[in-house]
């Protein structure tokens, strides 16, 4: 078996001769030895030790998806969890939790073995068979169990609700963003979430989860839409309908992000991703359709993440409610 590793003029792993069956950027030491590499070759200067037992080719950046898959394959009864599993599933999280490191894993309570390694945060918990799954070569917690664990990392109630909304996206909704596993929507049902909560009645963060559970809704398309809905509720206004189609005429229907059917108010979030010409034109036609049929559109933009932006949006919405209520 050819296990020769070139050392001169090599820019990346594609320039090196892999042992047969080891065509990975990231691999465990056990996989390398099984493929025929020696301990001496595992100390090749172009190989980086990410954590004991795992190597990757130094190609200028850490290959995160392959890294977590390698951690998942390390011996032991443990599963990718918390923000690591959430990123794989594509749950909406604060930017600070979308960074590559550390990698979180959870092992079963009462099972011997420590997962304390550099770059890895180990947790111990009671893991029911329904709390874990294998997907695309990853051993990880299920989407609903992952959401429960996120309550120990996400301390903003609005962000926790957004992560829960990501579980319940409508089947034809947009991609969740940073998902690696690429599972179809929805990732879970309310029954799945309730069952996971029932198995974790006494655990850190469960009270925050219970409060968030009452506020998550099916059909939300983005974390920004969650924020808009939550701002409306916190302002004491009625809860709008989420992402349901509206028939403006017998032949025309539209799907606003949120809406009040009685007042005929459509609430739209138009963030940075709406700046492309195609999307911009579509938004203009959509808003015109609502206006032409006696509806009013109220828009929220990226400034809803500031106190001033929140205030201005809510003022626009209240004025729209007053106008539409007076028409009725």
Detailed description of the structure:
- This protein has ten helices and 14 strands.
- The protein is an alpha+beta fold and 328 residues long.
- The strands form five sheets. Strands 9-12-13-14 form a four-stranded mixed sheet, sandwiched between helices.
Number of strands: 14
User: How much helical structure, as a percent, in the residues?
Assistant: 25-40%
- Briefly note the structural class of the backbone: alpha+beta
Outline type: elongated
Count of helices? 10
Secondary-structure element pattern, one letter each: EHEEHEHEEEEHHHHHEEEEEHEH
Radius of gyration, taken over Cα atoms and rounded to an integer in Å: 24 Å
Strand order of the largest sheet: 9-12-13-14
> How confident overall, as mean pLDDT?
85
In whole angstroms, the N-to-C terminal distance is: 81 Å
Assembly annotation: single chain
Strand content: 15-25%
Largest sheet report? 4 strands, mixed
Low-confidence stretches: 1-15
Protein name: AbiEi antitoxin C-terminal domain-containing protein
Organism: Citricoccus parietis
């Amino acid at each position: 078996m050819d296990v020769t590793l070139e050392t001169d003029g090599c820019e990346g792993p594609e320039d090196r001769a892999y042992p047969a069956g080891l065509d990975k950027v990231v691999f465990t030491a056990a996989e390398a030895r099984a493929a025929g590499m020696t301990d001496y070759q595992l100390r090749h200067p172009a190989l980086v030790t990410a954590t004991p037992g795992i190597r990757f080719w130094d190609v200028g950046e850490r290959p995160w998806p392959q890294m977590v898959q390698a951690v998942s394959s390390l011996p032991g009864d443990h599963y990718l969890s918390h923000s690591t599993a959430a990123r794989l599933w594509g749950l909406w999280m604060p930017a600070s939790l979308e960074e590559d490191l550390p990698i979180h894993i959870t092992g079963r309570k009462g099972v011997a073995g420590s997962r304390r390694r550099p770059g890895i945060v180990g947790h111990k918990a009671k893991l029911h068979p329904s709390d874990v799954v294998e997907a695309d070569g990853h051993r990880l917690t299920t989407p609903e169990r992952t959401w429960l664990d996120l309550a120990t990392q996400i301390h903003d109630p609005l962000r926790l609700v957004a992560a829960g909304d990501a579980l319940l996206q409508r089947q034809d909704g947009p991609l969740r963003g940073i998902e690696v596993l690429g599972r179809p929507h929805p990732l879970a049902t309310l029954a799945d979430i309730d069952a996971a909560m029932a198995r974790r009645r006494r655990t850190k963060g469960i009270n925050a989860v219970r409060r968030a559970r009452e506020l998550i809704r099916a059909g939300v398309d983005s974390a920004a839409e969650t924020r808009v809905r939550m701002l409306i509720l916190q302002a004491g206004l009625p809860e709008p309908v989420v992402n349901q189609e509206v028939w403006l005429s017998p032949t025309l229907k539209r799907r606003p992000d949120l809406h009040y059917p009685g007042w005929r108010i459509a609430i739209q979030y138009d963030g940075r991703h709406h700046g492309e010409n195609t999307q911009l034109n579509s938004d203009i036609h959509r808003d015109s359709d609502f206006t032409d049929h006696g509806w009013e559109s109220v828009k929220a933009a990226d400034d809803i993440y500031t106190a001033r932006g929140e205030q201005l949006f809510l003022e626009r919405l209240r004025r729209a409610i007053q106008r539409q209520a007076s028409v009725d």
